[in-house]
Design a protein that fits this description.
One of its GO terms (cellular component) is cytoplasm. It is found in: Cytoplasm. It is built from 16 helices and 16 strands. By secondary structure, it is an alpha/beta fold. It has 4 domains: 129 residues, Rossmann fold (3-Layer(aba) Sandwich); 75 residues, no CATH class; 172 residues, P-loop containing nucleotide triphosphate hydrolases (Rossmann fold, 3-Layer(aba) Sandwich), CATH 3.40.50.300; 53 residues. The protein is elongated and about 95 Å long. 34% of the residues are buried. The N terminus is likely disordered.
Length: 459
C-alpha cells in the first residue's frame, strides 16, 4: 500500500469549518481516501489503462467537493477482490490502524462496494465508509438547486439506500405489531422500511414523470421558435460552464470542481453570421457514473437527445483525456444518441492554455488529421470565435434554400422571412409591388416556410 500522508494536509485541501445550529464552529470531517486498484485492470469502455495518479486526483476532487478534510490518501494494489471486504485481510488491518492513529471519521473508497462489503468494513474500522457511488450522490445532493434536480437526487439516493437497508438500521430484528398501516403481524423493521422507501420512490417517479412531460412541452414550444438547440457535453470539469459563460456572458457556476454544474442551463446565443441558437449546458459525465444517477437524471439528460448539434468538450491537457472521451461517448450511447448526431458532433479540445509549446504543437498536428475538431481555451478565449464559426457551418449543413415571390404589401410575411431565414438575394419588381426572394432556412424552419409560401411561386 502506497501512502501519501500529509500530502493534502498542508496543500490547501482541508475543507472549511461549518457552523452548527448553536452557531458553533464545526470542523470538517477528517477523511482517508483509499484508491483501490486491480492490477492490469483496464477501463470498461477502453483498452487503455487509467493512470493511478489521475484516478487518485479525481477521487480527491470528489471528496473536496463535499468539503472533507483529507488527512491521508492510500493506494492499494489488489490481485483480486475479497467478497467480504473487497481488500485482503492484511490491508484491512493496516487501514484499521491508520484510522485509529489519525482519528479518521470517514473512509472514502474509489470503487463501488457491495452492501455487505461496506457493512463489514464499517464494523472493522469503526467509522463511516463511503464508496464512489455514495460520494457522487452526496455531491449531487449538495449541488442540486432546482426542484427537479432535488427530486432526481432524492430518487437516486433512495435507489442506492434500498440495497443498503441492512446497514442502515441497528434494530433490524425488532418486530412491529399488525395494527395500523405498518404492515401485517410479524413484519420486521427492515421490511417496513423497505416498503416505505418503495412508496416514496414511486411518488418521486410520478413527480418526475410530470417533469418529463413538462420538458416535452417545452421542447415542442422551442420547436415553434426558429432557434436550433446546441448542447454542451463532456467529462466533469472539462470546462463546459467556462465556455458557456464566455460566449453567453452567463453566470453558471464555473469552478475547478467536479460536478460544479448540475442543473441544466439554457441561453440564447447569436453566432457570428447572425444565426441564433439556444445553447444548453448540462451535467458533466464521469467514469462509472452510478446507474441510479443515470436513471434518475434521464429526464434532464434527454435534453441532449433533442439537440440539433452536440459539442463534446474535452480537457485536452488531462493525462487521461482519451479515456475520458470514451467514457463520455459510452454515456451518450446509453442515452440513445443517434448515429447521425454522433457523426455531426463537434469535438472541442479545451484547456490549451495548460499545454506547453511542444504539447500544443503535437495537438495541432493531430488536429490536422481529425474532422470536426477544434482546439480552444475557454479561459482565455483563444479559438472560441473559430469554434462558433464551426458551429454555424455545422448547423448550416441541414439548411435548405427556397426561392419565391412575395407581395410587398404582406409586410408581416416579409418580416418573418428576415427573422427566421437568411435572405441571400432579393429583387423588387419595377412597379414596387412584388419581391423575388432567395432565402436559406434552418432545418427547424424549412417545413414551416414551405407551407407558408407554397402559393407564392415556390421553388
Amino acid at each position: 500500500m502506497t501512502k501519501h500522508k500529509d500530502e493534502y494536509r498542508n496543500g490547501g485541501h482541508n475543507g472549511p469549518a461549518t457552523v452548527n445550529f448553536h452557531n458553533e464552529e464545526v470542523p470538517p470531517t477528517r477523511a482517508l481516501i483509499v484508491h483501490l486498484s486491480l492490477r492490469n485492470a483496464v477501463s470498461e469502455n477502453s483498452d487503455q489503462q487509467r493512470t493511478v495518479d489521475a484516478d487518485l486526483a479525481e477521487i480527491t476532487g470528489l471528496a473536496l467537493a463535499i468539503e472533507l478534510e483529507i488527512v491521508e490518501t492510500s493506494i492499494v494494489s489488489l490481485r483480486q477482490v475479497s467478497p467480504a471486504t473487497y481488500l485482503g485481510t492484511g490491508k484491512v488491518n493496516e487501514i484499521e490502524q491508520l484510522v485509529a492513529t489519525d482519528d479518521i471519521e470517514l473512509v472514502v473508497t474509489n470503487t463501488q462496494l457491495s452492501p455487505g462489503q461496506q457493512r463489514n468494513l464499517e464494523k472493522i474500522w469503526n467509522c463511516k465508509v463511503l464508496d464512489r457511488t455514495g460520494l457522487i450522490l452526496e455531491i449531487f445532493g449538495r449541488r442540486a438547486q432546482t426542484r427537479e434536480g432535488r427530486l432526481q437526487v432524492e430518487l437516486a439516493h433512495l435507489a442506492y439506500q434500498r440495497s443498503r437497508l441492512v446497514r442502515s438500521w441497528t434494530h433490524l430484528e425488532r418486530q412491529r405489531g399488525g395494527s395500523g398501516t405498518v404492515g401485517g403481524p410479524g413484519e420486521t423493521q427492515k421490511e417496513s422500511d423497505r416498503r416505505a422507501l418503495q412508496t416514496r420512490m414511486k411518488k418521486l417517479e410520478a413527480q418526475l414523470e410530470k417533469v418529463k412531460k413538462t420538458r416535452g412541452l417545452h421542447r415542442k414550444s422551442r420547436q415553434k421558435v426558429p432557434f436550433p438547440v446546441v448542447a454542451l457535453v463532456g467529462y466533469t470539469n472539462a470546462g463546459k460552464s467556462t465556455l458557456f459563460n464566455y460566449v453567453t456572458t452567463g453566470n453558471v457556476l464555473a469552478k475547478d470542481l467536479l460536478f460544479a454544474t448540475l442543473d441544466p442551463t439554457m441561453r440564447k446565443l447569436e453566432l457570428p453570421r447572425g444565426r441564433k441558437v439556444i445553447l444548453s449546458d448540462t451535467v458533466g459525465f464521469i467514469a462509472d457514473l452510478p446507474t441510479q444517477l443515470v436513471a434518475a437524471f434521464r429526464a434532464t439528460l434527454e435534453e441532449v437527445l433533442s439537440a440539433d448539434l452536440i459539442i463534446h468538450i474535452r480537457d485536452i491537457a488531462h493525462q487521461d483525456t482519451e479515456i475520458q472521451r470514451v467514457d463520455v461517448l459510452k454515456v451518450l450511447g446509453d442515452l440513445g444518441v443517434t448515429d447521425k448526431q454522433r457523426s455531426q458532433m463537434v469535438e472541442v479540445w479545451n484547456k490549451s492554455d495548460l499545454l506547453d509549446e511542444e504539447e500544443l504543437l503535437q495537438r495541432r498536428n493531430l488536429l490536422e488529421r481529425t474532422d470536426n475538431t477544434i482546439i480552444i481555451s475557454s479561459l482565455t478565449g483563444q479559438g472560441v470565435n473559430e469554434l462558433l464559426d464551426v458551429v454555424e457551418l455545422s448547423l448550416g449543413k441541414n439548411d435548405d434554400i427556397l426561392t419565391f415571390s412575395l407581395p410587398l404589401s404582406q409586410g408581416a410575411d416579409l418580416a418573418w422571412v428576415y427573422e427566421h431565414g437568411d435572405v441571400l438575394e432579393r429583387t423588387d419588381s419595377k412597379d414596387g409591388t412584388m419581391a423575388q426572394l432567395s432565402a436559406r432556412f434552418p432545418s427547424t424552419r424549412i417545413e414551416v416556410a414551405r407551407k407558408k409560401f407554397e402559393t407564392n411561386n415556390l421553388n
